[in-house]
């Protein structure tokens, strides 16, 4: 309607006079198993028993410009594996936090600095230091140990809805993507999390399954849900 | 031609400072030298005209060789801004000699050199105010010139130099040479103070937030001075002078609080240093609050390290990010402990747990290139843990035999066979058998769990 004017009975097309806003794609981190990539400035959760770190390292390998802050509770990440998997160590800052609270504080500081495109919060559900015993000799830990505290429901990680929401706001403001990697869901109340992925390993191949996506479902729905990272 | 071209390169900026009557003479001199120190960022050749009663101070910068670094307009803006940070109201002028620039600055209502009044010849001859005796003789000459009907510098410049000596004496000849840009005054050297400190009175010390404004201003000045010196602060001291109040003043009671802050990484920007100081003070004052209001705050740089001295790149944020990185690492290290924030630098060692070292400082990219190792796990236990070999485990890779460092008295060498195995439940483990402590034939060897290949 706005593009036309009538002058002495002749319709004239003025549409070319208006500046059209170009359709820009939302910035995303490349991740080959997911064609649309991963959103930036959001919370992305990767969970599963094995393969999470490998999947995350693949994201970083595919985005070589990304500066990474790797925050881990009771860190046992092995940096030599990074360079072997194509992630340059000069762009990774490792932070060893004592507990989930300290890890979150560090994450906020890191996001505030605005120099890191990716912040990894790993092992927020790590229990106090105990000798590692593989699952062959120890029963798996319960995953539904839900407890209610003053500031809303929390999971075993000690990260509640409020902490996640704060993290979501900080990520949005800084434009950095926060990756939460844990064996099970980091929080029962997961609405601030933008994307949830379940990573598993079958016959040597990584499988990525989309559990939840708030914005990129339309892109991912074009291909099957289970994807191997190759 | 050669002398003409070299003369044309000589260019002087004069930062003329208007003094406030509120400042004490000692403070004036200190502030002037602090500002001059900060001006080192623009030129290595500086001179200071000290303040005197009824006479405003000035800072001279020789900028002849800096034309590719900044324009005069940009320098004017930067110098005015810098002077503002140090609490000065300033005027910036440019000239082909120090005297010319100063004469233009002092007589702000004149735009052209030839229009300047004859009294400004005094500024031409003695811009740095180092020779007060010559001024008396010059005043006499100026008086004679005025009697003859000369009004401004332009008219004086038209007088033939040959006749000046016989008519007005040798001062007039020297003056003519200065006006004609044939003679330049020798620049006195400027030596910055060995101690970098800034002090400011505090009006409101009710909360740390209120103190933050004062601390921020002090840090701004300190950082500007350090930038001029091409240094970064690595250790600082913050002194609070407390108000002596109370009905009975106890002799043993101290009215001074000192905070010494060792920075894990040297800081060269106020954006990096201020949050660290603020956080440190918040923690310290929470533990031990102050007993009376704060009268003044002084911050002193105790130790410094050479700065990178890199120029800001308009097309990349690399230098800025590097500063931010250092600031973040320093802040986190202070908060959660040294050694817990690091970048991993690969080391050429076969022992897996020693194949990298933690570095607080970000090193050159070439140092992060790691040697080519066989497949390594993403998780490595800090201490290998004994584990019992399960007959159901499937060996995926191995053995990878690693041994060496027999010369190291701490380990007495290591002799390990690494295997990547898969348990019945599908978990992958990185285990090794220590060949050094192999039991007698027939007995079970002891295995250790060392890593998880793909967590």
Please characterize this protein's 3D structure.
The complex is a heterodimer of chains A (230) and B (455). Chain A is of the alpha/beta class. Chain A has a single domain (26-126, 146-228), classed as P-loop containing nucleotide triphosphate hydrolases (Rossmann fold, 3-Layer(aba) Sandwich). Chain A has helices spanning 52-62, 80-84, 100-113, 161-174, 217-220, and strands spanning 4-7, 10-13, 28-29, 38-39, 43-47, 68-73, 92-97, 118-122, 147-149, 152-154, 177-182, 195-202, 205-213, 227-228. Chain A has an eight-stranded mixed sheet with strand order 7-6-8-11-5-12-13-14, sandwiched between helices. A two-stranded antiparallel sheet of chain A has the order 1-2. In chain A, a hairpin with a 2-residue loop joins strand 9 and strand 10 (152-154). In chain A, helix 3 runs parallel beside helix 4. Chain B has three domains: 7-179, Alpha-Beta Plaits, CATH 3.30.70; 196-246 and 253-336, Dna Ligase, domain 1, CATH 3.30.1490; 379-452, no CATH class. Chain B contains twelve helices and 15 strands. In chain B, strands 11-15-14-13-12 form a five-stranded antiparallel sheet, with no helix packed on it. In chain B, strands 2-3-1-4 form a four-stranded antiparallel sheet, with helices on both faces. A four-stranded antiparallel sheet of chain B has the order 5-8-6-7, covered by helices on one side. In chain B, strand 2 and strand 3 (58-62) form a beta hairpin. The longest helix of chain B is centred in the middle third of the chain and has 22 residues, at 208-229. Chain B is elongated, with a radius of gyration of 34 Å. The termini of chain B are far apart. Classes of the chains: A alpha/beta (230), B alpha+beta (455). The interface between A and B is large, with 42 and 51 residues.
Number of domains of chain B: 3
The CATH C-level class name of chain A? Alpha Beta
Helical residue percent band of chain B: 25-40%
The stretches of 5 or more residues of chain B where confidence is low (pLDDT under 50) are: 1-7
Mean pLDDT of chain A: 74
Cα(first) to Cα(last) distance of chain A is 51 Å
Number of helices of chain A: 5
Oligomeric grouping of the chains: heterodimer
Q: Largest interface, with Cβ-Cβ < 8 Å?
A: A-B, 42 and 51 residues
Our count of helices of chain B gives 12
Q: What share of the residues of chain A lie within helices?
A: 10-25%
- Kindly identify the CATH topology of the largest domain in chain B: Alpha-Beta Plaits
Query: Structural class per helix/strand content of chain A?
Result: alpha/beta
Count of all domains of chain A:
1
């Amino acid at each position: 309607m706005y593009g036309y004017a009538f002058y002495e009975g002749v319709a004239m097309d003025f549409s070319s006079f208006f500046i059209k806003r170009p359709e820009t794609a939302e910035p995303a981190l490349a991740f080959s198993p997911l064609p649309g990539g991963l959103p930036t400035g959001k919370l992305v959760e990767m969970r599963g028993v094995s393969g999470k770190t490998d999947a995350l390292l693949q994201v970083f390998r595919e985005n070589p410009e990304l500066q990474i802050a790797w925050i881990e509770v009771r860190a046992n990440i092995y940096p030599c594996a990074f360079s072997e998997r194509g992630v340059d160590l000069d762009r990774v800052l490792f932070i060893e936090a004592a507990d989930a609270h300290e890890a979150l504080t560090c994450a906020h500081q890191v996001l505030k600095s605005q120099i890191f495109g990716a912040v990894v919060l790993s092992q927020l559900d790590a229990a106090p230091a105990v000798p590692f015993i593989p699952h062959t000799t120890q029963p798996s830990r319960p995953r539904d140990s839900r407890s209610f505290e003053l500031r809303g429901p929390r999971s075993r990680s000690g990260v509640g809805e409020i902490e996640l929401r704060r993290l979501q706001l900080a990520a949005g403001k800084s434009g950095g993507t926060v990756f939460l990697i844990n064996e099970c869901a980091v929080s029962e109340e997961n609405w601030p999390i933008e994307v949830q992925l379940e990573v598993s390993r079958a016959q040597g191949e990584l499988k990525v399954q989309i559990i939840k996506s708030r914005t990129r479902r339309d892109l991912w729905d074009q291909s099957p849900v289970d994807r191997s990272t190759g | 031609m050669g002398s003409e071209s070299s003369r044309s390169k000589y260019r002087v900026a004069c930062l003329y400072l208007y003094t406030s009557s509120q400042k004490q003479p000692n403070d004036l001199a200190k502030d002037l030298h602090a500002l001059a120190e900060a001006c080192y960022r623009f030129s290595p050749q500086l001179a200071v005209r000290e303040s005197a009663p009824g006479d405003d101070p000035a800072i001279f910068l020789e900028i002849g060789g800096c034309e590719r670094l900044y324009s005069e307009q940009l320098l004017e803006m930067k110098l005015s801004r810098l002077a503002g940070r140090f609490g000065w109201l300033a005027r910036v002028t440019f000239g082909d000699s120090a005297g010319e620039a100063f004469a233009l600055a002092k007589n702000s209502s004149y735009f052209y050199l030839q229009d300047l009044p004859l009294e400004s010849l005094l500024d031409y001859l003695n811009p740095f105010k180092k020779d007060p005796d010559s001024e008396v003789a010059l005043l006499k000459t100026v008086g004679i010139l005025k009697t003859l009907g000369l009004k401004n510098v332009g008219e004086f410049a038209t007088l033939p130099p040959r006749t000046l000596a016989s008519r007005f004496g040798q001062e007039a000849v020297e003056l003519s040479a200065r006006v004609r840009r044939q003679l330049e005054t020798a620049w006195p050297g400027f030596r910055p103070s060995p101690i970098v400190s800034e002090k400011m009175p505090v009006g409101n010390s009710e909360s740390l937030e209120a103190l933050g404004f004062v601390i921020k201003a002090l840090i701004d000045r300190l950082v500007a001075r350090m930038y001029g010196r091409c240094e970064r602060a690595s250790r600082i001291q913050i002194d609070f002078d407390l108000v002596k109040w109370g009905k009975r003043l106890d002799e043993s009671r101290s009215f001074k609080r000192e905070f010494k802050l060792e920075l894990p990484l040297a800081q060269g920007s106020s954006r990096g240093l201020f949050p660290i100081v603020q956080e440190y003070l918040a923690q310290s004052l929470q533990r031990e609050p102050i007993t009376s209001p704060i009268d003044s705050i002084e911050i002193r740089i105790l130790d410094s390290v050479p700065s990178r001295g890199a120029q800001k790149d308009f097309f990349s944020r690399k230098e800025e990010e590097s500063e931010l990185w250092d600031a973040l690492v320093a802040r986190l290290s202070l908060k959660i402990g040294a050694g817990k924030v690091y970048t991993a630098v690969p080391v050429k060692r076969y022992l897996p747990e020693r194949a990298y070292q933690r570095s607080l400082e970000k090193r050159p990219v070439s140092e992060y290139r790691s040697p080519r190792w066989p497949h390594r796990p993403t998780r490595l236990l800090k201490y290998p843990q004994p584990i019992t070999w399960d007959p159901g485990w499937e060996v995926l890779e191995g053995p990878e035999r690693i041994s060496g460092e027999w010369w190291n008295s701490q380990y007495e060498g290591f002799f390990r066979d690494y295997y990547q195995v898969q348990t019945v439940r599908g978990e992958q483990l990185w285990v090794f058998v220590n060949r050094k402590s192999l039991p007698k034939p027939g007995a079970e060897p002891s295995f250790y769990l060392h890593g998880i290949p793909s967590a």
